[in-house]
Amino acid sequence: MKEKRDYILSNGVKIPVIGFGTWQIPDGEVAYNAVKAALEVGYHHIDTALAYQNEVSVGKAIKDSGISREEVFVTTKLPAQIKGYEETLKAFEQSLTNLGLDYIDLYLIHAPKPWDVQTDGMEYMEQNIASWKAFEKLYQEGKIKSIGVSNFQPRHLEVLIKNTTIVPMVNQILLNPNVVPYENIEYCNKHNILIEAYSPLATGRILDDERLARVAEKYNRSVAQICIRWSLQKGFLPLPKSKTPSRIKENLEVFDFEISQEDLLLIEKK
After folding, report:
1. Catalytic residue of the set 32, 43, 52, 187
2. Residue 1: its pLDDT value, please?
3. Which of 39, 141, 153, 170 matches a 20 to 30 Å C-alpha distance to 119?
4. 3-state secondary structure of 85
5. Rounded to two decimals, what is the model's pTM?
Protein backbone atom coordinates (compact mmCIF):
# COMPACT_ATOMS: atom_id res chain seq x y z
CA MET A 1 0.00 0.00 0.00
CA LYS A 2 1.38 3.39 -0.97
CA GLU A 3 1.94 5.64 2.03
CA LYS A 4 -0.05 8.85 2.12
CA ARG A 5 1.87 12.00 1.26
CA ASP A 6 -0.79 14.46 2.46
CA TYR A 7 -2.77 15.06 5.62
CA ILE A 8 -6.32 16.38 5.36
CA LEU A 9 -6.97 19.44 7.52
CA SER A 10 -10.30 19.90 9.34
CA ASN A 11 -11.59 22.06 6.46
CA GLY A 12 -10.75 19.43 3.83
CA VAL A 13 -7.57 21.10 2.54
CA LYS A 14 -4.68 18.76 1.68
CA ILE A 15 -1.29 19.56 3.23
CA PRO A 16 1.91 17.66 2.31
CA VAL A 17 3.08 15.55 5.28
CA ILE A 18 6.61 17.01 5.27
CA GLY A 19 7.40 20.69 4.94
CA PHE A 20 10.69 22.42 4.24
CA GLY A 21 11.48 24.83 7.06
CA THR A 22 13.33 28.08 6.41
CA TRP A 23 13.88 29.45 9.93
CA GLN A 24 17.42 30.86 10.31
CA ILE A 25 18.08 30.61 6.58
CA PRO A 26 19.25 34.09 5.58
CA ASP A 27 17.52 36.03 2.84
CA GLY A 28 19.15 36.28 -0.55
CA GLU A 29 21.12 33.61 -2.35
CA VAL A 30 21.22 31.17 0.59
CA ALA A 31 17.44 31.05 1.10
CA TYR A 32 16.77 31.09 -2.64
CA ASN A 33 19.12 28.16 -3.32
CA ALA A 34 17.87 26.13 -0.36
CA VAL A 35 14.20 26.45 -1.34
CA LYS A 36 15.01 25.81 -5.02
CA ALA A 37 16.91 22.65 -4.04
CA ALA A 38 14.03 21.51 -1.84
CA LEU A 39 11.50 21.94 -4.63
CA GLU A 40 13.77 20.16 -7.10
CA VAL A 41 14.02 17.02 -4.96
CA GLY A 42 10.29 16.79 -4.32
CA TYR A 43 9.20 19.00 -1.44
CA HIS A 44 5.78 20.53 -2.12
CA HIS A 45 5.40 22.37 1.18
CA ILE A 46 7.50 25.43 2.10
CA ASP A 47 7.30 27.06 5.52
CA THR A 48 8.44 30.65 6.09
CA ALA A 49 7.44 33.70 8.18
CA LEU A 50 7.52 37.48 7.93
CA ALA A 51 9.85 37.42 10.95
CA TYR A 52 12.36 35.20 9.11
CA GLN A 53 12.96 38.08 6.68
CA ASN A 54 13.39 35.68 3.77
CA GLU A 55 9.92 35.70 2.18
CA VAL A 56 11.14 37.53 -0.93
CA SER A 57 13.77 34.86 -1.69
CA VAL A 58 11.37 32.05 -0.84
CA GLY A 59 8.76 33.48 -3.20
CA LYS A 60 11.29 33.95 -6.00
CA ALA A 61 12.52 30.35 -5.65
CA ILE A 62 8.94 29.07 -5.85
CA LYS A 63 8.28 31.15 -8.96
CA ASP A 64 11.55 30.15 -10.65
CA SER A 65 11.04 26.45 -9.89
CA GLY A 66 8.56 26.15 -12.74
CA ILE A 67 6.20 24.14 -10.51
CA SER A 68 2.60 25.28 -10.77
CA ARG A 69 1.34 27.38 -7.87
CA GLU A 70 -1.35 24.82 -6.99
CA GLU A 71 1.32 22.17 -6.39
CA VAL A 72 3.26 24.15 -3.78
CA PHE A 73 1.78 24.54 -0.30
CA VAL A 74 3.07 27.80 1.20
CA THR A 75 2.92 28.65 4.90
CA THR A 76 3.82 32.01 6.42
CA LYS A 77 3.17 33.65 9.77
CA LEU A 78 1.97 36.81 11.47
CA PRO A 79 4.91 38.11 13.56
CA ALA A 80 4.61 37.46 17.30
CA GLN A 81 4.81 41.15 18.17
CA ILE A 82 2.00 42.15 15.77
CA LYS A 83 -1.44 41.85 17.34
CA GLY A 84 -4.81 43.34 16.43
CA TYR A 85 -7.30 43.30 13.56
CA GLU A 86 -6.04 46.07 11.25
CA GLU A 87 -2.41 45.33 12.13
CA THR A 88 -2.91 41.73 11.06
CA LEU A 89 -4.49 42.66 7.73
CA LYS A 90 -1.56 44.97 7.00
CA ALA A 91 1.07 42.36 7.92
CA PHE A 92 -0.67 39.76 5.76
CA GLU A 93 -0.58 42.05 2.73
CA GLN A 94 3.14 42.60 3.35
CA SER A 95 3.77 38.84 3.31
CA LEU A 96 1.66 38.40 0.18
CA THR A 97 3.69 41.13 -1.56
CA ASN A 98 7.01 39.71 -0.37
CA LEU A 99 6.15 36.23 -1.60
CA GLY A 100 4.68 37.50 -4.86
CA LEU A 101 1.61 35.30 -4.44
CA ASP A 102 -2.14 35.77 -4.84
CA TYR A 103 -3.00 33.63 -1.81
CA ILE A 104 -1.37 31.79 1.10
CA ASP A 105 -2.10 28.13 1.79
CA LEU A 106 -1.63 28.38 5.56
CA TYR A 107 -1.31 31.49 7.74
CA LEU A 108 -0.32 31.19 11.40
CA ILE A 109 -0.18 33.45 14.43
CA HIS A 110 3.53 32.98 15.13
CA ALA A 111 3.18 33.01 18.93
CA PRO A 112 0.62 34.02 21.56
CA LYS A 113 2.94 36.78 22.83
CA PRO A 114 5.91 38.84 21.60
CA TRP A 115 9.19 36.91 21.90
CA ASP A 116 10.70 39.22 24.51
CA VAL A 117 7.76 38.98 26.93
CA GLN A 118 8.48 36.75 29.94
CA THR A 119 4.88 35.95 30.98
CA ASP A 120 2.73 33.09 29.65
CA GLY A 121 1.04 35.42 27.16
CA MET A 122 -2.50 35.09 28.47
CA GLU A 123 -2.72 38.88 28.79
CA TYR A 124 -2.44 39.09 24.98
CA MET A 125 -5.45 36.91 24.25
CA GLU A 126 -7.78 39.82 23.52
CA GLN A 127 -5.37 41.00 20.82
CA ASN A 128 -4.94 37.42 19.54
CA ILE A 129 -8.71 37.13 19.22
CA ALA A 130 -8.75 40.37 17.18
CA SER A 131 -5.96 38.99 14.97
CA TRP A 132 -7.84 35.71 14.57
CA LYS A 133 -10.96 37.56 13.43
CA ALA A 134 -8.80 39.15 10.71
CA PHE A 135 -7.60 35.62 9.84
CA GLU A 136 -11.22 34.50 9.54
CA LYS A 137 -12.01 37.42 7.22
CA LEU A 138 -9.03 36.62 4.96
CA TYR A 139 -9.96 32.94 4.99
CA GLN A 140 -13.57 33.67 4.02
CA GLU A 141 -12.32 35.91 1.21
CA GLY A 142 -10.17 33.05 -0.14
CA LYS A 143 -6.87 34.85 0.41
CA ILE A 144 -5.86 32.10 2.85
CA LYS A 145 -6.76 28.45 2.28
CA SER A 146 -6.27 27.41 5.93
CA ILE A 147 -5.51 29.15 9.22
CA GLY A 148 -3.73 28.16 12.40
CA VAL A 149 -1.41 29.10 15.22
CA SER A 150 2.12 28.42 16.40
CA ASN A 151 3.57 28.01 19.90
CA PHE A 152 0.07 28.01 21.44
CA GLN A 153 -0.57 26.00 24.59
CA PRO A 154 -3.99 24.46 25.40
CA ARG A 155 -4.88 27.44 27.63
CA HIS A 156 -4.32 29.84 24.69
CA LEU A 157 -6.24 27.61 22.30
CA GLU A 158 -9.13 27.28 24.74
CA VAL A 159 -9.67 31.05 24.93
CA LEU A 160 -9.29 31.49 21.17
CA ILE A 161 -11.77 28.73 20.34
CA LYS A 162 -14.37 30.01 22.82
CA ASN A 163 -14.28 33.55 21.44
CA THR A 164 -14.09 33.02 17.66
CA THR A 165 -15.86 31.09 14.93
CA ILE A 166 -13.22 28.88 13.31
CA VAL A 167 -11.13 26.36 15.27
CA PRO A 168 -7.44 26.57 14.26
CA MET A 169 -6.58 23.90 11.72
CA VAL A 170 -2.91 23.70 12.72
CA ASN A 171 -0.71 24.29 15.77
CA GLN A 172 2.99 24.46 14.91
CA ILE A 173 5.08 23.67 17.99
CA LEU A 174 8.56 22.66 19.10
CA LEU A 175 8.47 18.88 18.84
CA ASN A 176 11.09 16.16 18.43
CA PRO A 177 11.94 12.85 20.17
CA ASN A 178 13.56 14.77 23.04
CA VAL A 179 10.73 17.32 23.41
CA VAL A 180 7.27 15.73 23.44
CA PRO A 181 4.56 18.03 24.89
CA TYR A 182 1.96 15.36 25.60
CA GLU A 183 -0.71 17.67 27.03
CA ASN A 184 -0.64 19.92 23.97
CA ILE A 185 -0.69 16.93 21.62
CA GLU A 186 -3.71 15.45 23.42
CA TYR A 187 -5.58 18.75 23.32
CA CYS A 188 -4.92 19.29 19.61
CA ASN A 189 -5.90 15.73 18.71
CA LYS A 190 -9.17 16.17 20.63
CA HIS A 191 -10.00 19.31 18.63
CA ASN A 192 -8.83 17.94 15.25
CA ILE A 193 -5.94 20.41 15.11
CA LEU A 194 -2.99 19.07 13.09
CA ILE A 195 0.34 19.33 14.90
CA GLU A 196 3.31 20.57 12.91
CA ALA A 197 6.73 19.85 14.40
CA TYR A 198 9.26 22.63 14.05
CA SER A 199 12.89 21.90 14.94
CA PRO A 200 12.23 18.16 14.42
CA LEU A 201 16.02 17.71 14.58
CA ALA A 202 16.41 20.09 17.56
CA THR A 203 18.38 22.47 15.29
CA GLY A 204 20.95 19.71 14.82
CA ARG A 205 21.61 19.01 18.51
CA ILE A 206 19.73 15.71 18.42
CA LEU A 207 22.00 14.26 15.74
CA ASP A 208 24.60 13.27 18.39
CA ASP A 209 22.07 11.43 20.57
CA GLU A 210 23.49 7.93 21.22
CA ARG A 211 20.07 6.34 21.74
CA LEU A 212 18.88 7.59 18.36
CA ALA A 213 22.19 6.65 16.74
CA ARG A 214 21.63 3.01 17.76
CA VAL A 215 18.15 3.04 16.23
CA ALA A 216 19.50 4.69 13.07
CA GLU A 217 22.17 2.00 12.74
CA LYS A 218 19.57 -0.74 13.06
CA TYR A 219 17.58 0.69 10.15
CA ASN A 220 20.66 1.75 8.17
CA ARG A 221 19.44 5.35 8.21
CA SER A 222 20.67 8.71 9.44
CA VAL A 223 19.54 10.01 12.83
CA ALA A 224 17.78 12.84 10.96
CA GLN A 225 15.77 10.33 8.92
CA ILE A 226 14.82 8.43 12.09
CA CYS A 227 13.57 11.65 13.75
CA ILE A 228 11.54 12.66 10.69
CA ARG A 229 10.12 9.16 10.28
CA TRP A 230 9.23 9.04 14.00
CA SER A 231 7.33 12.30 13.59
CA LEU A 232 5.37 10.99 10.61
CA GLN A 233 4.46 7.72 12.31
CA LYS A 234 3.20 9.67 15.32
CA GLY A 235 0.89 11.65 13.02
CA PHE A 236 2.84 14.92 13.19
CA LEU A 237 3.99 17.08 10.29
CA PRO A 238 7.76 17.63 10.52
CA LEU A 239 9.45 20.74 9.11
CA PRO A 240 13.12 19.81 8.67
CA LYS A 241 15.51 22.57 7.62
CA SER A 242 18.89 22.48 5.92
CA LYS A 243 20.99 24.61 3.59
CA THR A 244 22.91 21.59 2.26
CA PRO A 245 21.41 20.01 -0.91
CA SER A 246 22.42 16.45 0.03
CA ARG A 247 20.77 16.73 3.45
CA ILE A 248 17.71 18.44 2.01
CA LYS A 249 17.29 15.40 -0.23
CA GLU A 250 18.08 12.87 2.52
CA ASN A 251 15.49 14.39 4.86
CA LEU A 252 12.76 13.61 2.33
CA GLU A 253 13.84 9.99 1.81
CA VAL A 254 11.76 8.57 4.66
CA PHE A 255 8.89 6.86 2.88
CA ASP A 256 10.57 3.51 2.13
CA PHE A 257 10.95 2.16 5.67
CA GLU A 258 8.93 1.86 8.87
CA ILE A 259 10.03 2.02 12.50
CA SER A 260 8.64 -0.77 14.68
CA GLN A 261 6.30 0.09 17.57
CA GLU A 262 8.94 -1.12 20.00
CA ASP A 263 11.53 1.24 18.55
CA LEU A 264 9.07 4.15 18.42
CA LEU A 265 8.72 3.81 22.19
CA LEU A 266 12.48 3.51 22.61
CA ILE A 267 13.04 6.70 20.61
CA GLU A 268 10.92 8.69 23.09
CA LYS A 269 12.33 7.08 26.22
CA LYS A 270 14.45 9.12 28.61
Report:
1. 52
2. 45
3. 170
4. helix
5. 0.96
